[in-house]
Amino acid sequence: MNDRFEIPARLRNTSLALIAVGVLALIGGIASLLTSHVDTERARFWSVLLHDSVFFTLITAVSIFIQAAVSLAQGAWIVAFRRVPEAIGANVWIFGSIATVVLFAIVFTFKDSHGVNTIFPWVTPAADDHIIHGKSAFLNKGMFVGFTLAAVGLWSYFGIKFRAMSIAQESAPKNDTKIYWKVFRMSGVFLLVYALTQMSTIPWLWVMSIDAHWFSTLFSWYTFASAFVSGMSLILLWVVYLKNQGNLGLVTTEHMHDLGKFMFAFSVFWTYLWFSQYMLIWYANVPEETVYFKMRQQGPYSIIFYANFIINFVMPILILMARPSKRNYFTVTFMAMVIIFGHWLDYYQMIMPGPLGGNWHINWYEIGIFMGFLGLLIFTVSRTLSKASLVPHNNILLKETAIHIA
Amino acid sequence: MAIKKFAVAAYDDEAVLFPAVKKVRKSGYKLHDVYTPFAVHGLDVEMGLKETDLHIAGFIYGICGTSTAVGFISWIFTSDWPIVYGGKPHFALPAWVPITFELTVLFAAVGMTLTFCYLNQVMPGVKKHVFHPRQSDDLFVMAIELNEHTPEAEVIKFLKSTGAKETSVQTAEEGWWYGRWDKPEAYEALNAG
Fold first, then answer.
1. Quick one: average pLDDT of B115-141?
2. Which of A66, A342, A94, A355 is nearest to A207 (CA)?
3. Taking 60 as the threshold, does the pLDDT of residue A401 lie above it?
4. List of chain B residues whose C-beta atoms are within 8 Å of the C-beta of residue A321
């Protein structure tokens, strides 16, 4: 069994090339969008950065959540590839820091030619805008900065800490359960932290406050479901990649089947929340609420709205439903890529209608920035993976994970 | 369904049962079934049982539920008794999704339950032959179907060699039946022949 992962030159070169594309897109963006005289072009520069940095922060933070949830449930199935979510979780601080910089730059510096912050309208509300003034106890710069720093700081801390504890277990005495119970207790704490950040306040502040007049009470659950299913797909892609490299000998079709089940089940869960939000607003037909979907469903974003439904619901439910397709490496890999792309689109249509109106493009800039973040993810996670053994030796659940049956 | 002769072996340990099942399959004797007090992981693989098609049945039942719901509701609201509710169009698909979903689940659940009962031959009032009274208590019981090429004595000897605690030869109805549980005359006819 091959314990150590050595980064293949091809992977490193690919990731560096992707980062280079991202940097070029950023430079191009600064040259042509940020310095443009058109307001929506400048808004596009920032909101694309916001979209990608927030998306990557949230889907990587899911890796910490899944470790905590499975540790608390004392699940053994994940132990065979536990180093993968650990490595992704230990790099949340990178994406979190980028997101923090982008978010603060937007809140504190971004203004259009009329002095209005079109991305976060609550920063510069009109004097007679009673709705936003009514929300000012929560939607203000202090809250935004406080929650952002607290969330990113805590996620970074737990991500690094979980990995450190797991590595410390390798040199602990055999069958020593001290670290195991420490991870158990910290998982409980992390779930609380996660519930108060990712599952509630953070999506309100980072994403929902773009449409500051509008609100939805299940919005954070909906964004969480979106992030969770793409985060699981991300873990699955790494597991498949490492297996193709001859690592992760403990991972069998049974573990892949479980990951496939998560992708399937949480695609359905996402659809449930997506539809619940839509149907209540459609049914009640209150203008303050329907304005959100006017732009998305019937306006310029309708193609993304329906693509979102087909990619994130129809495809997973039809392709992943059968047992053999969840046990087939090609199908799950293909679907994982589709799901990540689909939820990237989902976040796109959450964020863009506010700042850009009808002037949206998915063009060189959007794709370039996405590739840059992807490259950064591959580069940092592969570097972290190569630093420790891929098999969590001495983990007390190692035997149980080896004989796991889905 | 037919009345057949079985060689029955009872084991008291999974660790003995697994190699025994493997040996039986290798020897070519016809493994009828294995009865265990609890679900034993991996035993289905060892016995060479094929994956059930219950999922496919469930999918078909679900699709039936979906089409029943959408078909019936759309017939009512667009042609049989069209009423305007809250300014919504007659064909108000989003409003029907919850009911469609519920009916899909209901059809799939009820259909799969009944199919499961049929496949596993469990229903109220349905009788099956019990090979060993302790098969639902603390013994793992394996039944091997006998025929003219597999003499009783040879199979029993073989089963003992695999570590069986108890062995016996029984004549029994292999499937399920409904009504009176015993058919002594059929057994006698077989034994006489």
1. 88
2. A355
3. yes
4. 59
Domain match, B70 and B100 both: yes
Q: Write out the residue range of the structural domain in which residue B85 sits.
A: 54-120
| Count of structural domains, chain B | 2
ipTM over 0.90: no
Is the pLDDT at B179 greater than 80? The verdict is no
Give the range among A211-215, A279-283, A400-404 with minimum mean pLDDT: A400-404
The enclosing H or E element of A68 equals: helix A39-72
Interface of A with B in 60-99 (CB under 8 A): none
Are residue B68 and residue B108 in the same domain, yes or no? yes
What percent of chain A is predicted at pLDDT more than 90? 83
Alpha-carbon gap: A276 to the closest alpha carbon of chain B (Å): 9
A284 to chain B: nearest residue by CA?
Answer: B86
- Residues B73 and B107 grouped into a single domain: yes
What pLDDT, in 10s, does the model give residues B147-163?
888 888 999 999 999 99
For residue B181 the two structure tokens come to 């549980």
Q: How many CB pairs (< 8 A) connect A and B?
A: 20
Q: Do both B32 and B79 map to the same domain?
A: no
B26 and B61 together in one domain:
no
Q: Which of A330, A278, A336 is nearest to A312 (CA)?
A: A336
Euclidean distance between CA atoms A179 and B27, whole angstroms: 49
B35 and B87 in a single domain? The answer is no
Torsion of CA A356, A28, A53, A375, to 10 degrees: 140
Q: Does the pLDDT of residue B34 top 90, yes or no?
A: yes
Mean pLDDT of A3-25: 94
* Residue A221 near residue A199, CB atoms below 8 Å: yes
**A285 has a chain B CB within 8 A of its CB:** yes
Pseudo-torsion of CA A140, A291, A42, A56, nearest 10°? Answer: 70
User: Would the CB atoms of A321 and B87 count as touching at under 8 Å?
Assistant: no
Residue B128 lies in a domain: no
Residue B127 lies in a domain: no
Asked whether residue B186 carries a pLDDT value surpassing 60, the answer given is: no
pLDDT in tens, A331-349: 999 999 999 999 999 999 9
Q: Are residues B45 and B59 in the same domain?
A: no
Q: What is the CATH number of the domain that holds B171?
A: 3.30.70
In a shared domain, residues B42 and B90? no
The answer, for B95 touching chain A at a CB cutoff of 8 Å, is yes
